[in-house]
Amino acid sequence: MPINQALLDNPKSDRVRRVADLARAKGRERSGRFLIEGPQSVREAVTWRPDVVQDLYVAVDDTLGRVRYASDTLARIVETSQDATIYVHQATREVIERISKDAQGILAVGNMNAMHVGPDAVKLPAAGERTPRIAAFWQVRDPGNAGTVIRAADAAGCDAVILVDECVDPLNPKVVRSTAGSLFHIPVLQMDVEGFLAYCAEHDLTTIAADVYGTPDRRPESLPALLAERADARGDDADTAARPGEAVLFGNEARGLPPEILTRMDRIVSIPLYGKAESLNLGTSAAVMLMSLAMADR
After folding, report:
1. What is the reported pLDDT for 252?
2. Residue 265 in contact with residue 204, Cβ under 8 Å?
3. Domain CATH for 131
4. Using an 8 Å Cβ cutoff, are 154 and 268 in contact?
5. By three-state DSSP, how is residue 28 classified?
6. Strand ranges inside 157-244, DSSP E
7. pLDDT (tens digit, 9 = 90+) per residue, 141-183?
8. Is 130 found in the same domain as 96?
9. Which of 21, 51, 228, 231 is deepest in the core (most CB within 10 A)?
C-alpha cells in the first residue's frame, strides 16, 4: 500500500475523531477496530501480525515544505510496514496527540476480528519437543495487570494465554500498551471456567492453581518443592519433554481463586515469601512462577 502524501493536519476532522473513539469500548464494538499505541507495540504488530494492522498513523515534521518523520525509529517502522503493504497516513504531532496522549508519535488501527482466535488456533508442541504450557488468569480486571501478565507469559515461552470468566477487554488500549508488543506474539483466548477445564482435559494438561492459602483440605505445595521434584526427575534421566503439559491458573488481583475452582485443580502451588511482605502482586507472581517453570524445563 502507498504512503498517503496528504498531510493530516486537522485535529478536529472526522477521521481523527473516529480513530480517537477507539479508546472507548463502544467505539471498538461499533467499528470492529482497536488502537495500537506507541513505537514498541506498533513495531511488534507490524512485524509479527501485519495481517491485523489496517492503518498506520505517524507524526511528521513539516519544515519549509519538507516532510520528514519525527524520529529514525518511526521511519524504520514505516519502512517495515511497507513490506507488509500497510497504508500509512502522515500527520502532524497535534493530530497524533489528539488521537492518543500515549502514542509517542505513532499509532495503528487494528482489526479486532483478526485478533479473536479460538482454541484450535493454539499450536501446542508435539510429543517429545518440550512441555506445553498455558498461562491462565481468572477475572483479571485491571488493564495494566492484564498487559503485564500477557507479557510475562510471552517471556516464559508459554504457548497461549487464556483469560477466564469476566476479564478486562484484551484490546483495551492500556492492555495493548502494557503487553509491550507481546499481544502480537502469543494467542490470547477467552473462556469461562467450564470451557477452560474442558480445554485442559481435552489436551491432557495438568491444571496448577497459583494460590497462597489453598483450601482447608488441601494446603498448597511450595514452588521450590515443585522445582526440586522436576530437577530430581531430570537427574533420573526421565524424558521431561514427554511429561504432560500444564495450565497454570492465577486468580483475581484482590480475591485470588475461590474454593470452588481450587477444588477442581490438579495441584495448588504457592510462591514462598522470605521477608515481611504479606503478598506479591499478580504481575510479579505470574512472572516468578512462569519463568521458574520455564527454567526448570531447560
Report:
1. 93
2. no
3. 3.40.1280.10
4. no
5. helix
6. 160-164, 188-191, 206-210, 221-222
7. 999 999 999 999 999 999 999 999 999 999 999 999 999 999 9
8. no
9. 21
